[in-house]
Amino acid sequence: MLWWGVAAALLANVLYSTGFVLEKRALSALPALSTRQPARLVRHLVGSPLWLGGSLALAAGFAAQLAVYRTLPIAAAQGIFVSGLVLLLLLSSVFLGERTSGRERQSILAILLALGMVVASLQGSGASTVTRTAPTGTLLAIALPSLAAGLWLFGAAERRARRRHRQPSTGVPYGVAVGLLYGVSSLAIKGVSGLLDAHDWAGTARDLFTSPYPYLLLFTGAVGLVLSQTALQRCRASLIVPVCTTVTCVFTAACGTVAFGEPLPSDPVRLSLRLGGTAVAVFVLLALPRQDAGEPAPAAEAEPAPGPGTRSQGVEP
Fold first, then answer.
1. Contact, 44 vs 31, CB < 8 A?
2. CA 105 to chain centre
């Protein structure tokens, strides 16, 4: 069963990376999207066959993720999911023509190293322990403040984006905000996977709808759709998706371990690897540039034309 989980995680990586690239290509041909007009945004999206193809790939990745969470510990699954960043960067380069800077490539390598530390901490006794459900109070105590923080951060990024004479954003704040929403969604997916029972569909439906998992999924799915597509249209997929994925993985590994009661390492070395890897990933995110240096800053507002009695300050002929 362990290898089935690893295979499902690798398949999910391929499906998610393909879906993001297809959606990004579709978004480049659509009018500018705005979170202030969600109905108009959704209408443009469903009218694009290429975007629909990308969304179907993401939906298939969601199904594969359900299989992963039934067979692998939540922290181990995140270590495999984050390896999909390499494939995403390759696809973005080939199909989107995006190029990452040296600093961004170094940051992504550091992120992979950090999450490798988290995976290394899973070795030893209890590494394959899989918990099915989380106490509702604990789950909501983690999920609700995280959702509020994600929405606030996205709103703050939108307000900064509307300021005049500012440098173009790389999308790091957008990626962190959407990553928090998808982190909560990942916890809900983990909970749904634990309640599925192919031999008792009536009992599964009863357990699902009396739990918070489907409602968290509906909220993060609807709001995440509007926010993520707006952010993906405005920013490079080769940066915003790795940032979003890293936040989701670190959040899910850290908070999921607490919410679902999967044990932390008792060995000091493995505990240091778990906590140190999380700290390094967060530090790298904070150190990423907030502006695209390769793009020119917006032009300054034009000076008013000099009036009849105003002397021009140019070089005199």
1. yes
2. 18
CB 215 within 8 A of CB 143: no
Residue 90's CB: how many other CB atoms inside 10 A?
A: 13
Tokens of 123: 């070795």
Q: What is the DSSP letter of 310?
A: P
Residue 242 and residue 16: Cα distance in Å, rounded? 12
pLDDT along the chain (317 residues), means of 10: 80 94 94 90 94 95 92 80 79 82 75 76 64 92 97 91 61 91 95 90 92 96 94 85 86 89 80 80 67 44 44 39
C-alpha distance from residue 57 to each of 11, 52, 118, 190, 311 (Å):
11, 9, 28, 19, 63
Query: Structure pTM?
Result: 0.79
HSE toward the beta carbon, residue 98, CA cutoff 13 A: 23
C-alpha to C-alpha distances, 220 to 186, 223, 306, nearest whole angstrom? 10, 5, 54
| Closest residue by Cα to residue 242 from 28, 94, 91, 119 | 91
Spatial CA neighbour of 178 closest among 222, 139, 231, 141: 231
Nearest Cα neighbor of 71 from 135, 141, 11, 146 is 11
Cβ-contact 204, 195 below 8 angstroms: yes
> How far, in Å, CA of 125 to CA of 202, rounded?
36
**168: exposed, middle or buried (Cβ count in 10 Å: 0-12, 13-18, 19+):** middle
CA distance 307 to 317: 19
Give residue 119's Cα distance to chain centre. Answer: 19
Cα dist from 230 to 41, 42, 156, 171, 303, whole Å: 8, 11, 14, 11, 33
Residues 308 and 295: their CA atoms lie apart, in Å, by 37
3-state secondary structure 91-137: HHHHHHCCCCCHHHHHHHHHHHHHHHHHHHCCCCCCCCCCCCCCCHH
